[in-house]
Amino acid sequence: MAFGTIRNVRKVFSASELNSRSAEPVVALDDANFDFDEGQLIALLGPSGCGKTTLLRIVAGLIQKTSGSVMIGGREITEPLGDYGFVFQSPSLMPWRSVLDNVLFTMEVLKRNDKVARDRATQLLELVGLSGFLGARPHQLSGGMQQRVALCRALIHQPKLLLMDEPFGALDELTRLEMNDLLLRIRKETGATVLFVTHSISEAVYVSDKVVVFSRRPARVATEIPISLPYPRNQQLRFTPAFTKAERLASEALGVVPPAETGSAA
Ligand SMILES: Nc1ncnc2c1ncn2[C@@H]1O[C@H](COP(=O)(O)OP(=O)(O)OP(=O)(O)O)[C@@H](O)[C@H]1O
Asked: Which of 13, 67, 153, 226 is the most exposed place for a label (fewest CB within 10 A)?
């Protein structure tokens, strides 16, 4: 059985949730379906406003779905679980805390801020190339470095599932490419299962085992594209026929380009 199953998930934001008497209900998700295995990295790709963040928040147990089922590791998700990690577009670090103490914040909340936690935080920060910045404050770091800290903070408690919502969307192109490689390396080291929301077709193909493409709101899964590019991946893969073909399939599903006459070939 799959580690994660998203079945017929529908979410309607009612007028009361919209805090307005006059507003029409908003159908954010309509019958979203897909599965994923433990250790997989799944990219969720779709037009702006199609409900990707809403789906992540439902998977996280932060909001209730209107109908359908979300099972993670054999449990139906109805409330927030402690064993998830989150990375958002903004790193949201605490400015008064050092890099190390920002990473350890999760462990403080979980009351597990012991030597083991500190050693792991130090190892993670080393893995992302920040071993020289343990005592630095967030304002002394670049945007990419801050996002590396946020990644370590999300992984410090060895979460069952890592949820990433456009984590590299605010970074410049070069830093973004570096972060894609870093994510692949971290994921290999930690074995984390990841749901990764992005607007970038190229990024989705590069980092994932499968791209789930959503239609316009109300979102349904338009198609699932298995990515069988080899590991370890490197930037040269972006210029291979297999990569271009996957990008083309995703672009077709998004309606960016018409379907190729053969139905799939790049
Ligand atoms: N708390 C909320 N209350 C009411 N409506 C909401 C709420 N959260 C999201 N929505 C609506 O649900 C729809 C989907 O929003 P969502 O943020 O999930 O889309 P998205 O695909 O993540 O967008 P983007 O890619 O631009 O970040 C939007 O129309 C949004 O206005």
From this structure: 226
